[in-house]
Amino acid sequence: MQANSPLTLQLPLPAARERLVLWLLALTQFTVIMDFMVMMPLAPQLMRAFSIEPAAVSGAVSAYAWCAGLSGLLASMYIDRFDRKRLLLAMFALFTLSNLACALAPNFHVLVLSRAFAGLTGGVLASIIMAIIGDLIPAERRGAATGIVMTSFSLAAVAGVPTGVMLAAHYGWASPFYLLVVFSLLIWFAAWRVLPSLNGHLTRRVPLSEVLPNLIGLYRVRGHLKAFLLSGVNMLTGMLVIPFISPVLVENIGVQPAEITFVYLAGGVATLFSARRIGKWSDRVGAQRVYRYIALFSILPIMFMTHMPVIPLVAVILFFPFFMMALSGRNIPMQALMTTVPDPAKRGAFLSSNSAIQQVGSGVGALLGGLMLHTDAAGHIVGYGLNGWIAAGLTLFSVLWIGQVGAAVKAAPVAQAKVA
pLDDT of 242-282, one tens digit each? Predict the structure, then answer.
């Protein structure tokens, strides 16, 4: 087949091809999530290596989130103007460079700047991936498709983060970022070979002079604003708790840094099995209902995590799967619901804006969570319980608010996929 004479595929794709594309997207998302997650269990080593407080580590996490939010907002102005595959490959290449910069950072200030660069690139990738799902997968199957892509969280927890933490324990904190560079290069070449070109949305491209007015118009739609609020609060809730799990386990519970590997491994294995099942459940009974069930359940592990007494490592490992399944599981029906909120012609811009809101929520959560913590004379981290109470209250709000978020369209139009 000639490269300049592409084969056009009418959607939906054949089942085998669709699964292959979804797992490629999951692997791409895997690198983004691992990059974000690995900073959290590395917190004790970073605190010791650079002589910094927990608030400084949360500052590095929030720097990534703030920049990811900014890039997502800017991406909403151009994401629908390019072929999805080409844009994904370009941003993925820059993301890989950002991880190399993190690995080579000579001090904490350079590391924070490198994390900001990672946020600028990684934040856009999540938007592109969700836009591809919206283009390729019919609305009635997007929960299951999102569940497959969300297994990237499980893969990161099962394989990525434990491997990164173990490497860091033996070869230094920079080694996980070198590992990410290698992973990203392999996945980039696989995506280049396997992903179809997606440019059907370009037939609906608006003139450049109308891009900014249309972006502003996204924020004038009442349904969009309700969805953005849900996304922001949902992410803020998790980030009040998640970035500080590792330092709290080490400083307060007595878990050794190398043992954090087993904690995240247990949680990741559990979510590897739960993610796809939650996605199918969401398709069967409705995204709103499933979100409510899982979010309400998540209050219990949130409260235990933030008020955990000194318990054996085995007990921590047995508990952590419930925490991971609940916190990651509620994102699956929410993300599936978000793909149905906008008009299909505005899906990429809406999802980019939504990703920006999520990243801002993450940044606010990490920043506020870090500000409420301090280290006492005994070296223990104090204030984590307050984070838990606020997270529980915000979770209850999101359970009530999701009823305000509804689908604007029932089905997406057929797009065009081209394989060069």
Answer: 878 888 898 889 888 778 878 888 887 888 788 778 888 98
Q: Provide the pLDDT for residue 412.
A: 40
40 and 245 Cβ atoms separated by less than 8 Å: yes
Side-chain half-sphere CA neighbours of 122 within 13 A: 30
CA 161, CA 124: separation in Å to the nearest integer?
22
Query: Under DSSP, is residue 289 helix (H, G, I), strand (E, B) or coil?
Result: helix
How much is the mean pLDDT over the chain? 80
- How far is Cα 277 from Cα 415, in angstroms, rounded to an integer? 27
Measured on CA atoms in the order 383, 168, 92, 2, is the torsion positive or negative? Answer: negative
| Of residues 329 and 65, more confidently modeled | 329
DSSP H or E stretch at residue 10: strand 7-10
> Distances in Å between the alpha carbon of 356 and those of 27, 119, 153, 228, 362?
21, 11, 19, 9, 10
Q: What is the pLDDT of residues 399-409, one digit of tens each?
A: 999 988 875 54
Pseudo-torsion of CA 129, 132, 133, 136, nearest 10°?
A: -160
Residues β-bridged to residue 10: 416
pTM of model > 0.70: no
